[in-house]
Design a protein that fits this description.
This protein is of the alpha/beta class. 34% of the residues lie in helices and 15% in strands. The protein contains five helices and six strands, in the order ββββααβααβα. It has helices spanning 43-56, 73-82, 93-99, 106-114, 141-153; strands at 2-5, 14-19, 22-28, 35-36, 91-92, 127-128. The strands form two sheets. It has a four-stranded mixed β-sheet, covered by helices on one side. A two-stranded parallel sheet has the order 5-6. β2 and β3 (22-28) form a beta hairpin. α3 (93-99) crosses α4 (106-114). The radius of gyration is 15 Å and the shape is globular.
Length: 157
C-alpha cells in the first residue's frame, strides 16, 4: 500500500510504501496517487509517520527499520554510515567513503546511496560533491536543498 505524508512548506509530499507488513520505501511522491495517512491503522505506517513527525518537529528520532530493508551488506553499511552524519551538516562522498575505510570508494558510496529506498530515514541528502554542489539525489535537487536548509535552521530538541 502507498500512503501520502504531507511535509513542510517548500518540500514535496512523501510517499510511504508498506508491503507485506514491512516498510519498503519512503520517497518523494511525484505524480503517484496514494491514500492519506489519516484513519489508517497499519502499525508500520503509524511508526513511520511518527518518525517523520518527530523529524519535522526538530527531534532526532531513532532509526529502527534498517534491518528490515532488503539490500546488499555493502548498501546497508553505507546507509548506516550515512546515518552518522550529524543533523544539519553535510559530508562529501569522499568523506563518507573515508569514514568507511575506502579511500577510493566515493563512486561506490554514491551508487549505494542512489539505491536508498528510505528518504530521510537514511539521510543521503546530507552527502554532497567535494566542490560543495548538490547532486545525485533521488528526490530531486530542490528537495535536497530544502531538506538541508530545514535542518540548518531547525534547533534539535
Amino acid at each position: 500500500m502507498k500512503y501520502l505524508y504531507t511535509t513542510i512548506e517548500g518540500l514535496d509530499d512523501l510517499l510511504i510504501e508498506v508491503e507485506e507488513g514491512k516498510l519498503s520505501a519512503i520517497r518523494f511522491r511525484g505524480d503517484e496517487s496514494a491514500q492519506t495517512i489519516r484513519d489508517q491503522t497499519d502499525p508500520v505506517l503509524q511508526k513511520t509517520a511518527q518518525w517523520l513527525d518527530a523529524y519535522f518537529a526538530g527531534k532526532r528520532p531513532k532509526n529502527e527499520v534498517m534491518d528490515e530493508i532488503s539490500a546488499t551488506p555493502f548498501q546497508k553499511k553505507v546507509w548506516s554510515a550515512a546515518c552518522t552524519i550529524p543533523y544539519g551538516t553535510t559530508w562529501t562522498y569522499e568523506q563518507l567513503a573515508a569514514h568507511l575505510g575506502m579511500s577510493k570508494g566515493a563512486r561506490a558510496v554514491g551508487n549505494a546511496l542512489g539505491a536508498n529506498p528510505l528518504c530521510l530515514l537514511v539521510p543521503c541528502h546530507r552527502v554532497i560533491r567535494k566542490d560543495g554542489s548538490y547532486a545525485g539525489y533521488n528526490g530531486g535537487i530542490e528537495n535536497k536543498r530544502a531538506l538541508l536548509e530545514f535542518e540548518k535552521k531547525t534547533v534539535l530538541k
